[in-house]
Design a protein that fits this description.
heterodimer, A: about 300 residues, mainly alpha, MetI-like fold, two-stranded antiparallel sheet, globular, B: mainly alpha, 14 helices
């Protein structure tokens, strides 16, 4: 480190481009979106200061209050399914794939392929596969004797959201898989050797060595899933449109925000950017609280 | 006895892995196979390979839509954004890693905010700013947004990496009369290559596949990126199955092939990049 009392020109020249662009197009817009939640107006211009009116509308006026609660609950459900199905499966796969066997590299490469697809493509693809006109999944279920499972998976309000969550898990298993694999590989092999010599069983190794040492990575995976999920949009757009079909049962913050702000793809709504900004503000605080909780739970333990 | 147990364990391991491979690969296989089938084939023989391969789903799609432009746009946007991310974040990281000044830590943490708070949440004001700059419906708007989106993680990865480069290297160059700028260009930058690769790789997928910002910032047919075009074509061909699958395959296969070619670097880059988060 070079110590210097006055700022050298290089510090300014090198920092300024990133700092200016980043402030201009990320920090300022996010703060401004918070501010806009106190205004009404059209998309391009905030016109009138209205105080808390947007929030009051959002929390007390039907159908906005129902949509808000609905989006929040759906996001939570979506998040829980992702954590259980996507992240837990990824963890199990990572534990298996880090034990060296022929083809382990190959399998890891394959399991990442869906992650390279666009969320949109994946949504459309599963939408087509589950389409009753084609009856593709129905025929497979029939063939393996699971006819009881035949139903309009995306049309039924009960199954639509879980189905979308499973589609999301199918696509994004690659990311936690890579993180967990890297984490397990980073553990000192001698710890395992020592424990093995002491007669610790395979399950014991996972329970007492792999999992505790993997805790920071588990934390990272959970917070990434959380942030990604509470700002997701594409998957519901592709599978269930911006309306969160059927009957808003798959509506999440992302689609609610889009619909309210831009009003496109919907006949009955007028775009209301002020109200949209209020939704974005709530999303901001949800993410913010998530990050704080993550720091409190996972980062502190790391330091101990 | 031990041996039989091993064989049982081994074969159940492989069975499990193969079933999983099937779950992962089959939908992708199905997408590609269906795009090569006739409409009749799609309904009578939905599961397997086409009974005869036909390409007219593709020729029909390519004839009416401008895939040359969509690919060009996606390439321009992705490559320019990644180039800008690398330049901006390596410059900033060098200063943050090697120079001590009052606001250093503060600025570093200021950049880290961008890793945790998604840029999407500022969309409304971004639209206003972009409109004010007369960049609405212009690829430059996407390039700016994606650059800003990638810079925080870029700075995070590169600052860490530059800090590990021994001070002796810079000092030796300085004694030889090398300027601060020269040290960055001749000493730091060449050593930074693996970290730059990691930053580039971490950014490819989110930028190439982004749908949100083109949906909001782009209107013109000739400026559509692949995801935006895919969404619109999907809506147009909804009932023509073969063509819909051709659209989805066209959007996916280039990136799948690219990934398979450099999968080793890809996975390494992602683990290095994301690991530090």
């Amino acid at each position: 480190m070079k110590k210097n009392r006055k700022l050298k020109p290089i510090i300014i020249f090198f920092l300024a481009p990133a700092l200016i662009l980043y402030s201009w197009f990320l920090i300022v817009p996010i703060l401004n979106s918070l501010r806009l939640s106190f205004y009404t107006g059209n998309l391009f211009k905030a016109e009138k200061f209205v105080g808390l009116a947007n929030y009051i509308k959002l929390f007390t006026q039907s159908p906005f209050n129902e949509r808000l609660i609905g989006a929040f609950v759906n996001n939570i459900k979506f998040f829980v399914v992702l954590c259980i199905v996507q992240n837990l499966t990824a963890l199990i796969l990572a534990i298996i794939l880090t034990r060296k066997f022929k083809g382990s590299e190959f399998f890891r490469t394959i399991f990442f392929i869906p992650t390279t697809l666009s969320v949109l493509v994946v949504g459309f693809l599963f939408n087509l596969m589950l389409n009753p006109t084609w009856g593709f999944i129905d025929k497979i279920l029939k063939a393996i004797g699971l006819e009881v499972l035949i139903r309009p998976w995306l049309g039924d309000p009960v199954t639509a959201l879980p189905t979308i969550s499973l589609i999301g898990s199918w696509q994004y298993i690659g990311i936690p898989l890579i993180l967990f694999t890297a984490g397990i590989k980073g553990i000192d092999q001698e710890i395992f050797e020592a424990a093995r010599v002491d007669g610790v069983s395979q399950i014991g190794l996972i329970r007492y060595i792999t999992l505790p040492l993997l805790k920071p990575i588990i934390g990272v995976v959970i917070i990434l899933t959380f942030i990604g999920n509470f700002t997701a949009f594409d998957i519901v757009y592709a599978v269930a449109s911006t309306m969160g079909n059927p009957n808003y049962t798959t509506d999440i913050f992302g689609t609610f925000f889009y619909r309210t702000t831009f009003g496109r793809g919907t006949a009955s709504f007028n775009p209301d950017p002020g109200l949209g900004a209020a939704i974005a503000t709530i999303m901001f605080f949800v993410v913010f609280i998530g990050v704080i909780l993550w720091l409190a739970i996972f980062r502190r333990k790391e330091e101990e | 006895m031990q041996k039989t147990k091993n064989i049982v364990a081994r074969s159940s391991l492989y069975t499990f892995m193969l079933i999983f491979t099937g779950v992962v690969c089959y939908p992708i296989f199905l997408m590609i196979a269906t795009s090569l089938k006739s409409n009749k084939d799609i309904f009578t023989n939905p599961y397997g390979l086409p009974s005869n391969f036909i390409f007219n789903n593709y020729s029909k799609v390519f004839l009416v839509s401008r895939y040359d432009l969509y690919f060009r746009n996606s390439f321009i946007v992705t490559l320019s954004s990644i180039a800008l991310i690398l330049v901006l974040s390596s410059l900033a990281s060098y200063v943050l890693a090697k120079y001590k000044f009052a606001a250093n830590r503060l600025i570093y943490f200021y950049f880290l905010i961008g890793i945790m708070i998604p840029i999407k949440l500022g969309t409304i004001n971004i639209v206003q700013i972009i409109n004010g700059l007369h960049l609405f419906d212009n690829l430059l708007s996407l390039i700016i947004v994606y650059t800003v989106m990638g810079v925080p993680l870029g700075i995070f990865i590169l600052t860490d990496f530059i800090k590990m480069i021994p001070e002796e290297l810079s000092n030796a160059a300085r004694i030889d009369g090398c300027s601060d700028y020269g040290i960055f260009l001749k000493i730091i930058l060449p050593l930074l290559r693996p970290a730059l690769a990691a930053v580039a790789i971490v950014n490819i997928l989110p930028i190439w596949n982004d749908f949100w910002f083109p949906l909001i910032l782009i209107r013109s047919e000739h400026l559509k990126t692949i995801p935006l075009a895919t969404s619109i074509l999907y809506g147009q061909y909804e009932t023509q199955w073969g063509m819909v699958f051709a659209v989805l395959t066209t959007a996916s296969v280039p990136l799948i092939i690219f990934y398979l070619i450099i999968s080793k670097q890809f996975i390494r880059g992602l683990s290095e990049g994301a690991f530090k988060g």
